[in-house]
Amino acid sequence: MNAKLSKFGERFSRETGTAQLMDDLGRAISEDPTALLLGGGNPGVIPEMVALFQRRLHEIGDSPDDIQRMMGNYAHPRGELRFRKSLAALLSRKYGWPLTADNIALTSGSQTGFFQLFNMLAGDFADGSRKRILLPMTPEYAGYNDIGLVDDLYVAHRPEIEERHGGFFKYRVNFDSLRIEDDIAAVCVSRPTNPTGNIITDGEMRQLDAMAKAAGVPFIIDNAYGVPFPRIIYSPATPLWNENVILCKSLSKLGLPGIRTGIVIAREEIIEALGNMTAIQSLTIPSTGAVFIQPWVESGEIEDISRDVIQSFYQRKMEFACDVVRREFEGVPYKIHSPEGAFFLWLWFPGLPITSEELYRRLKTRNVLVMSGHRFFPGLKEPWRHADECLRLSYAQEDRVVEEGMRIIADEVRGLYSGRAAVATTESVRAGGRIAV
Q1: Number of domain units in the chain
Q2: Are residues 282 and 415 in the same domain?
């Protein structure tokens, strides 16, 4: 292409971690079915969900009204109204939140929703100032990395690390160092967190909410894996919403990533602004996902499906993956972040002789696709060796893929450590207990 690109064109056509991930994912699914795909965020194939999807497709095919709503009408720029009403009623009934359809907007996938939200709230302002998004605990979702219209959109803080028995650890918000400065436009966390499976505790969430309110900035919660759907959680987590919270959800982890439906729940002026942005960008939001699951939301069946089918499927997968890691990585210095939700294992290799990015490249030559941990630290400016010692692995795929992929990763890592003392090289690992690193 010989045309000179604008700053916008250059920014959003460059190679990024997100583009690399989706290229790996797309190639593995469509071109190389032998690839051991442990790196993407694609949900697993759950036979019971496939049967439910087939049943729902037949229902839609027999309903001229549903077909018209799904494909024959422009929906409102905020998204299909009947779905938004049903979701508001479900959340009000379940949690007592004072919601109406005007508190809900749909987006073309959660990635688009975060692009809109972050750039609407932060960036360059008319008075010449620049504001940023505060990520109070890293590692965080890699998809945030590349969606800013300006550089330096994020400021992030290192966590405390709580060492646990059995080779597990947990990140916790380091409130001792956390401040919401004047240049912060919003606070954002994911819960459960992609990549680590961490569930920020109820107490930490209340404290973050109070800090955001005191600073007069919104508190954004990425709830793509949480309650009431798809409920990919294995530890207690009380949902949070109030007028200062922007709660974001998705239909992808129900097993519907291809229909690209994100959900934003917020006070009315935020929702109105999102709808206006959608009208400019794409006129409206596709209604496929909204029409597809609306009866399940209206009846509350979505809660039963999430608890009895989705959650149980992934919990079994998580336990299987942990067993495989314990077996295959015996003798290798590793730690697992406590898998409290989502469908990823976050492995930490203290003192890894090479960077996690180089390990990613080596594994790719062996037909194993993972994600390098360094991709998951948006906004963290100071060097931190820990960020180059971690991998994110998905356990959503078939058991044989998970088992074989883990075996190859263990073989590669064991070879890297060979000849070195199989111990951690930092005081933080040897100390145990809760530590700030």
Answers
A1: 2
A2: no
Judge whether 65 lies within some domain.
no
CATH number at residue 343: 3.90.1150.10
290 shares a domain with 318: no
Domain boundary among 299, 331, 353: 299
Q: What is the mean pLDDT of residues 3-14?
A: 86
Distance CA 297, CA 307 (A): 14
Domain that holds residue 290: 76-159+170-299
Q: What is the pLDDT of residues 294-337, one digit of tens each?
A: 999 999 999 999 999 999 999 999 999 999 999 999 999 999 99
Q: Report pTM.
A: 0.92
Residue 2 lies in a domain: no
- CA 37 vs. chain centroid, Å, equals 17
Q: Residue 21: inside a domain, yes or no? A: yes
Q: Determine, yes or no, domain membership for 330.
A: yes
Q: What is the CATH number of the domain that holds 152?
A: 3.40.640.10
Specify whether 238 is located in the same domain as 351.
Answer: no
* Residue-level pLDDT at 434: 43
